[in-house]
Amino acid sequence: MLAAVAAAILDGALPAAGDARERALREAVAGARQAVAGLSAAAQDEVGELFALLSSSAGRILAAGLWPHWREVSVEQVAAFLNRWRHSRFGLMRAGYAALHDLVLGGWYGDARRWAAIGYPGPPRVN
Description:
The protein has one domain (2-114). The chain has 6 helices and no strands. It is globular and about 55 Å long. 63% of the residues lie in helices and 0% in strands. The chain is mostly helical. The chain has helices at residues 2-9, 18-37, 41-55, 57-62, 75-86, 91-109. Helix 1 (2-9) crosses helix 5, helix 1 (2-9) packs across helix 6 and helix 2 (18-37) crosses helix 6 (91-109).
């Protein structure tokens, strides 16, 4: 589930295809998991509930509106689901979108190897 979400959120920042894309997606998932590990215990529990919901077949279909398994959904289908949640009238869905978005991007761009792509020179040096 998280790899499919990361592929949609990082669309355009990932390699187009092949082994490089698969490696980048594994790194994105690992970065998101590391971002979760940095949260408070209560926030980790909430994110765990969100991941459990979306990882289940019922949650994927009912909450995300995605019938295919996560391994089979297209980037466009996941992006559409995320967009629905982002603009939902329900605060809980908007919060779910924000959590997924921030964890994926935080994990991805928290890696110093990604900073050049966004023009970030790194933290200032203290002498």
